[in-house]
Amino acid sequence: MPGNFQFIGFEPTDDLKTYSKEIFWLVEDKAPSQSAQSARLSKVDDTFSAHIKIHSSSGVFEADANDPDARVCIEQVYAKTKSLLKTWARSRGAFLGPKKVKV
User: Fold this and answer.
1) Is residue 101 part of a domain?
2) Using CA atoms, how far apart are residues 41 and 82, in angstroms rounded to an integer?
3) N or C end of the chain: which has fewer CB within 10 A?
4) Is 78 inside a domain boundary?
């Protein structure tokens, strides 16, 4: 399902669908321009596994998380993804030169 998490092995509640879509939009917003994002949340036994992958000309960014609670699992994978993107953005800033300071 484009624009949202793909759910595997369970039927998500409406609340979880809404929450996951909001998180996916945050990922899209923070991802490099002209990138493609995918996300999935699967359930095996009593454990949820989340995976986010971003393909871009700047590289591939991937994060995974596991937790018995679906929302916590999504929060964890988002936090890891956000950290990867922050690191990328900081390293990219070094190539853009110093920030201009208004005096």
Assistant:
1) no
2) 17
3) C
4) yes
Separation of alpha carbons 56 and 85, rounded Å: 12
**DSSP letter, residue 3:** T
Looking up residue 39, the CATH number of its domain turns out to be 3.30.160.100
pLDDT tens for each residue of the chain, 103 residues long: 357 899 999 999 999 999 999 999 999 998 988 999 999 999 999 999 999 999 998 889 999 999 999 999 999 999 999 999 999 888 876 554 454 444 4
Domain count along the chain? 1
Residue 1 lies in a domain: no
Spatial CB neighbours of 87, under 8 Å, sequence gap ≥ 6? none
Which three-class secondary structure state does DSSP give residue 98?
coil
